[in-house]
Amino acid sequence: MTRHDVRAPASGRHRTGLQVAVLAGGKATRLGELTVRRPKILMPVAGRPFLDLLLAPLLDAGLRRFHFCLGHLAQPVLDRLDRLPAPIEVTAHVDTSPRGTAGALRAAVPHLDDVFLLVLGDTLLDIPYADAARWLGPRDEAAMVLTSAATGVRPNTRVHDGRVTRYDKDAAQDPDTLWTDTGVCVLRRDALRHLEPHRDPVDLGALFRALVRRRALAAHLVAEPFTDIGTPERYARFRGRHEHPVP
User: Fold this and answer.
1) Which is it for strands 48-49 and 44-45: parallel, antiparallel or unpaired?
2) Max CA separation in the chain (angstroms)
3) What angle, rounded to 10 degrees, do the helices at 74-82 and 50-60 form?
4) What sign has the CA pseudo-torsion 113, 103, 53, 3?
């Protein structure tokens, strides 16, 4: 693992605002030839990399500190981050072996704040983020953002009394499972202790299920749809909407 201070703060600079961790190190095997030479987070949409679209609502909310968890084809992402026009602080680490989404986040622990916003690098959710830290209650270890909107992704989460009571993205459809994980959540860094040590690769689902068992995973419910460009079909639909919008 290597670390890159893409835009590190000046010495002694006061750090403010919620930190955002972006997971963008996977090989994107479901996208096939589309990501052989280009990382998924830089896939083009209307002449811009997907990264720019992902950052837009976060920057609009005043969030300015980011840590990127990178791996496959990391250098083009680092190059893009170094050229961003927005005045932001960015650090990154590069995993040299597959860790999975949760494993990559665990590797980022030295760079993470006590509380941070987690965003998957292949999803886009345009909601107000300015109060994201408040989604987390005093006894919560994480708050998952869930949507009731139809998104093309099968609902995978059950909620009761403001808590996530079931999370299983691979389970058969359940009529009581009405909410879909958007790929966005607020986490306490200490929640990562629930991951089994020295076990990689490991998916975020393992962490979320551990938090469900502890009744420590809050649900932040929204009605806005989100975009997932993780398959050729979803990427094509999203790109089509932006490049050929309906009048």
Assistant:
1) antiparallel
2) 54
3) 50
4) positive
Contact 237, 152 (CB under 8 A): yes
For residue 134, give the amino acid letter: R
Distance CA 200, CA 181 (A): 23
Label the pairing between strands 89-94 and 115-120: unpaired
Q: Peptide bond before 225: cis, by omega within 30 degrees of 0?
A: no
Convert the pLDDT of each residue in 53-93 to its tens digit.
Answer: 999 999 999 999 999 999 989 999 999 999 887 788 999 99
What the block records as the tokens of 157 is 């989460």
Residue 181 DSSP SS3? strand
Q: Which residues of 152-171 are buried (b: 16+ CB within 10 A; e: fewer)?
A: ebebbbbbeeebbebbeeee
Asked whether 63 and 38 are in contact (CB, 8 A), the reply is no
Separation of first and last alpha carbons in the chain: 47
Q: What is the CA radius of gyration of the chain?
A: 17
127 residue type, one letter: I
52 contact partners, CB below 8 Å, separation of at least 6: none
Pull the structure tokens for residue 133.
């830290």
CA distance 212 to 166: 7
CA distance to 88, 200, 215, per residue, from 187 (Å): 21, 20, 14
Where b means 16+ CB within 10 Å and e means fewer, 13-25 reads eeeeebbbbbbbb
* Helix, strand, coil percent values for the chain (each to nearest 5): 30, 30, 45
Q: What whole-number distance in Å separates Cα of residue 240 and Cα of residue 116?
A: 33
pTM of the complete model: 0.91
Question: 119 forms bridges with which residues in the sheet?
Answer: 22, 184
Give the model's confidence band at 168: pLDDT under 50 very low, under 70 low, under 90 confident, else very high. Answer: confident
